Protein 1
Amino acid sequence: MTPPPEANRPFGPGAQWLRVSGQRPEVEEGARLVIVGAGGHGRDVLDAAEADARYEVLGLVDDGTPDRALLERRGATFLGPLRVMEDLEAFYVLAIGAGGARQLVDQQLVSWGRHAGVVAHPSATFGADVIVHPGLVALAGARVTNHVWLGRNVHLNLNATAAHDVQLGDYATLNPGANVNGNATIGRGATIGSNASVNQGLAVGAGTYVGAGAVVVRDLGPGITAVGIPARPR
Ligand SMILES: CC(C)(COP(=O)(O)OP(=O)(O)OC[C@H]1O[C@@H](n2cnc3c(N)ncnc32)[C@H](O)[C@@H]1OP(=O)(O)O)[C@@H](O)C(=O)NCCC(=O)NCCS
């Protein structure tokens, strides 16, 4: 699963992954960025993107009807529906909470030739030998220690942690304050709820949703919802 070694380098178009050690993933200074999803989570991602300050944030797109007044109050530009990305030369990050929906929108954008960028709030920390794939969003206080694998479009919300040797599959999500302990594996599209934790060495299956505050003490299979302490499928 580990790709060949490659030094830290800017995350340009076509980059499949990069390895970072003790620093945030590099991005192309001044590259243009669009945030896909203009709801509350979109504004959270915008906070991180603005604090990150390495991109020129063009604005946000959304197929729904976001609160444009809230966006205008902070000087953010609503660019329109997703399809504006078809002709817009810009990187994107997805401010979409659900991993499955994130994957569908990602596939659409890739089919239009767009490239996912990486947004990491300056207070997010990365240990040694962390593999990052396109689309990573790390909000304020997210912490990743060493030898962690972050799949495509992984989202690390506020104060979420992933400890040594953790693997987060493509489109996996750690909600605010979620803690994934050493050597645990979180499957593709799975979500760990706010303030939930996953004990060391366990596996959470693809698409599984761990409820807020749960403590995972046994492996969980794919496609289930598990809540409580200890976390049990319901
Ligand atoms: C687990 C979860 C997905 C279930 O959502 P849901 O399917 O809409 O569930 P409901 O609210 O209908 O609740 C169904 C039952 O599960 C219980 N339940 C729901 N979430 C629970 C949780 N986190 N822990 C314990 N019990 C929970 C409810 O009390 C209810 O029990 P009852 O049938 O005895 O009354 C959701 O409650 C949750 O925890 N989401 C994570 C929230 C989060 O992390 N938000 C951060 C966003 S950035």
Protein 2
Amino acid sequence: MSYDAIVIGGGPVGLLLAIELRLTGLTPVVLERLTEPDQTIKAGAIHAITGDALNRRGLHDALAAGQQQTVKEMLRLFTGDDTELDDAAAEAAMKKFAGNAPRGHFAGIFKLDATKLSQLGVPTTGTPPIVMVPQPVLEAALGQRASELGVEVRHGCELTGLAQDDEGVTVSVNGPDGSYELRAGYVVGCDGGGRSRVRKLTGFDFPGTEPAITGHQALAIIEGAEKLARGWNRTETGMMVYGPSPERVLTVEFDGPPADREEPVSVEELQASVRRVSGTDVTIKEIISATRFTDNARAASTYRIGRVLLAGDAAHVHSPFGGQGLTLGLGDALNLGFKLAAVVRGRAGDELLDTYTASGIRWPCAYWPHTRAQSRVGTGRGADVATGPFPCAALRTRRAGLPASGSPRVLATG
Ligand SMILES: Cc1cc2nc3c(=O)[nH]c(=O)nc-3n(C[C@H](O)[C@H](O)[C@H](O)COP(=O)(O)OP(=O)(O)OC[C@H]3O[C@@H](n4cnc5c(N)ncnc54)[C@H](O)[C@@H]3O)c2cc1C
């Protein structure tokens, strides 16, 4: 079997890119080191532009089901009633909710006036601004679509080596049946965040800012959860988010980065953080899924070296404030997909691929200040955002555009 492109990483960005390539008639293969789809709690929402694009790819029903699931969780949180809602009741609740849906938030401030977005230069489309689909649900839908289109996804296959020449790229892979090599015209690294092996093996740089905060996000069985204030809350010691489901907590503490990002989050660690930030004595009985996060902001200064490209978190990382990482990465896949297809089919020269890095929507200056400013609004330490290595004066601009806010207690998923 010969492949036009090898996609490393079967997360949401890798899967969408493979779908895009397949829709043009190319034959991609996806190599994913996990043996099963990832169920870790990560993104809870994507933004309107990406939602629109996925709807056009035939994923409308899957996104609607994901959103409906989130609404059911929110109702369970607000009513304390564990009874399963039937779809009609959830649909009615969703319509009611949609009328009052948060327009997105900035550092947990939900009083953003949508009419001010255009004053800040943000295009508004009139589409609901947030599609509340949990990342595992989205990944399952993308996996299903990829399978329907005949995309080969090889689970349990980890990239270990990579070498490119003028004609193509050869990758070394550790798979369930041992090591093997695979070759294709192009390789795209969709292998996630700080540890992208494609980025490191190819020699991409990854400049940016150091982490300064420690965040935890978890689904957990919580004893005494009624003591937690629902929604986003600023406290004396950080930010505390409870919801949209009765099991979901998110804490942010502003006293430095995590000591260790590799170790799994323990019950004791999560409980200590929730207690510190919420000021309650809740007990974490069991962790269903948990992650640690921080706010380092980095991006490769080019997303292409020869026949190797980067997309998603492999190309850029920033804090999850405002829920933008996945949206941004899916945008990468949509932009790169048709360009790579045109080049492989000989309809465009490979210089078209250079426009992929340059496309404005993904250029880090457009996003980093936005997310970094949110960290600093949390701490009140804003100077480095306004004058740092990418001096976009974001904090000043964003603050100038924000309405005054009290203690935000509005619920959202981002
Ligand atoms: C707490 C938190 C909340 C967030 N909330 C939001 C939100 O609401 N909205 C939003 O838009 N974004 C959000 N994000 C960001 C979002 O989760 C990421 O941007 C998204 O996961 C990036 O997708 P990806 O496919 O690029 O990378 P990943 O999801 O990291 O997928 C990479 C894949 O590559 C595989 N892989 C890695 N190395 C190899 C290898 N050597 N060989 C083969 N496979 C490999 C991995 O197993 C993985 O499956 C949040 C992030 C966090 C931490």
